[in-house]
Design a protein that fits this description.
Layout: E1 6-11, H1 14-23, E2 27-30, H2 34-37, H3 44-55, E3 67-71, H4 83-98, E4 103-106, H5 117-127, E5 131-134, H6 144-153, E6 158-161, H7 172-185, E7 188-192, H8 200-205, E8 210-213, E9 216-219, E10 233-236, H9 238-251
Parallel strand pairs: 1-2, 1-8, 2-3, 3-4, 4-5, 5-6, 6-7, 7-8
Antiparallel strand pairs: 9-10
Helix pairs in contact: 1-3, 4-5, 6-7
Length: 254
């Protein structure tokens, strides 16, 4: 029997959460401005709305109740945060958990590129038992394999990583090394970063515990000079999400 591998979709609205539940995803990572910034913290109202949307989708043996994990990242750019930014992140973690989120997705580094353990421990404490995922800040740590010990010791449950590459499908050997080390420290490895349905069999073969992708498309809707130009906005695409779920089902049992 092949190992169980979870599907996680990055979504930006309640409709995305409904699609994720419909295709049998285990979790969503809720964020905003995903394409433009790589994702930043959603508003408290959006967290509440997505938690409510996920809760009304009935669970079954094939599709358990969808979990909502909230990205807490105050701005785009690097992951070295000031005291004021850290305070904002701590407040956002508390708001997300109070709104019913099952977990939060965080990350913080020192100027030298190491995991910022004191800040991370504070974020884990603020989550008050909700699951904590360390996001792709891990992909700029000089030795991510060694960092797994630090993350596990700080109370992190899961790491989202592309293996340091632009696309997770290009870093299978690094992902396999992370998986090998993770078994000894009790932390999950979730592959994410440019993932498509075609990448999923190879990622599963590398031994990851979960696969993460956005399955998004852009809706054309010009906002004019005061509304962000002609970039439109992003939505979760049902067809792309179904393709990812199907690829995973044909490789392992969801």
């Amino acid at each position: 029997m092949p190992p169980r591998v979870a599907l996680e979709l990055a979504v930006q609205d309640p409709a995305g959460a409904v699609i994720a539940a419909d295709v049998g995803a285990r979790r969503v990572e809720l964020c905003t401005a995903l394409g433009a910034t790589g994702g930043i913290t959603p508003s408290a109202a959006l967290v509440e709305a997505v938690v409510a949307a996920a809760a009304v989708v009935p669970a079954s043996d094939a599709a358990p109740l969808l979990e909502v994990h909230v990205l807490v990242r105050p701005r785009p750019g690097g992951f070295v945060y000031s005291a004021a930014e850290t305070d904002l992140m701590l407040r956002d973690v508390t708001l997300a958990v109070d709104a019913g989120a099952d977990g939060v997705v965080v990350g913080a580094l020192t100027p030298s590129g190491a995991v910022d353990v004191p800040r991370l421990r504070d974020l884990v404490d603020a989550a008050e038992g909700a699951e904590v995922t360390f996001h792709r800040a891990i992909d700029v740590v000089p030795d991510p394999v060694a960092a797994l010990d630090v993350l596990a010791g700080a109370g992190v449950a899961r790491v989202l990583t592309s293996g340091g590459a632009a696309r997770a499908g290009e870093a299978l050997e690094r992902l396999a090394a992370l998986v090998e080390r993770s078994a000894g420290v009790g932390i999950e490895i979730m592959a994410g970063g440019g993932v498509t349905a075609a990448d999923i069999p190879a990622l599963v073969a590398a031994g990851v515990d979960a696969v993460h992708l956005s399955a998004r498309r852009t809706v054309s809707d010009a906002g004019g000079p005061g509304g962000g130009g002609d970039t439109g906005y992003e939505v979760t695409d049902q067809t792309l999400a179904e393709a990812a779920a199907s690829a995973l089902r044909t490789t392992v049992d969801l």
